[in-house]
Amino acid sequence: MNTMKSHRMKSSKIAYWLVVAVFGGGLLGLNWLPEGFSPESAGAAASEPLSTPASPQDDFPVPNGLKPLRVPSDNPMTTEKVELGKQLFFDPRLSRDDTVSCATCHSPEHGWSNGERFATGVRDQVGGRSSPTIINSGYQYFHFWDGRATGLEEQALGPITNPIEMDLTLEEAVEKINGIEGYRHRFNTIFGSDATAETIAKAIATFERTIVSGDAPFDRYVAGDEDALSDAAKRGHDIFFNRARCSACHVPPNFSDRGFHNIGIGIDADEPDIGRVAETNLLGDRGSFKTPTLREIQRTAPYMHDGSLATLSDVVEYYAKGGTPNPQLDEEIFPLKLTDEEKADLVTFLEEAFASPSYPNITAPELPDWPMDGGNN
């Protein structure tokens, strides 16, 4: 490696660690927030309130490269609760016609998304947004593209009651689950009572916190393994953290700032999706959507909240041109003036860097029989 290449690599790694230290808190365990931050502010880096983990999480280690998970004090993680949550996640009986489960739109075969442009629910109803991955969702504070839920427990109930997705009232969902003896037995063992909407949400959220991805080539590279990335990916790494400033929003280690940004996707439509502003009523949030993680990004096509970009090459081209002009366009979106080779290197980095060999490719579990199974499954 010549001196110039060595200097660029060192500079790129220094840039990475500065981003982690200032925005991600990875070096000193800090959670930096800008002065005057509030969760409602447009584009702010939302951070989950600090809390002591409810119980030791030794049974649920996170991969190298990620920070320890914080869990709500009223919903500690246990193996039994994870298994219950997994069953509920894969069970289509949480939908009105027994055809749609959480895993329908968040499948391990498609990067815990669905591989389609839009989400499809009961009666083949098609929504207007893509299914975001749940990978590393335990590190997010806001959920859904517009951030209308805070915390995984609140998020877990949203699709169940959405008339386009699973189309049950909470009362109906509770009644269906308690009508299955195997579930009723488990809820009484774990929570001390029959299922409730709250405990259904807690079980599903607990399972979702185990869907984590780390220990990827990127993590090994910044830890000193020079062979973890190809030469093209190393050049893409330098572009990502420096010239293209992708890390301004895709902040390590989860490569999301947990905030909302307008990058112009779909804003020029006749009836555009207005995004976060529907929740905050702040004009600055018009057309803003949550920054997704880049972990396992090569698995989660198509991309953006409307699934309008089919490939990572399309994504890079879109950012390179500077997005779609509009009054609320984020200040970090501007023409990048990249060469074709530089664009290709950036794509290679995205494809290689975040693909973990320990990807959580979970098999659907056996479900309790309907309507009665004696509590043995």
Tags for this model:
single chain; 377 residues; mainly alpha; Cytochrome Bc1 Complex, Chain D, domain 2; 2 domains; two-stranded antiparallel sheet; 33% helix; disordered N terminus; disordered C terminus
Structure, explained:
The chain has two domains: 19-48 and 216-353, Orthogonal Bundle (Cytochrome Bc1 Complex, Chain D, domain 2), CATH 1.10.760; 79-208, Orthogonal Bundle (Cytochrome Bc1 Complex, Chain D, domain 2). Helix 11 (312-320) packs across helix 12 (340-353). Residues 1-56 and 372-377 have low confidence and may be disordered. The chain is mostly helical. It has a two-stranded antiparallel sheet. It has a two-stranded antiparallel sheet with strand order 3-4. The longest helix has 22 residues, at 3-24. 33% of the residues lie in helices and 2% in strands. It has helices at residues 3-24, 79-90, 102-105, 152-161, 170-178, 181-191, 197-208, 217-222, 231-241, 277-280, 312-320, 340-353; strands spanning 142-143, 149-150, 260-261, 289-290.
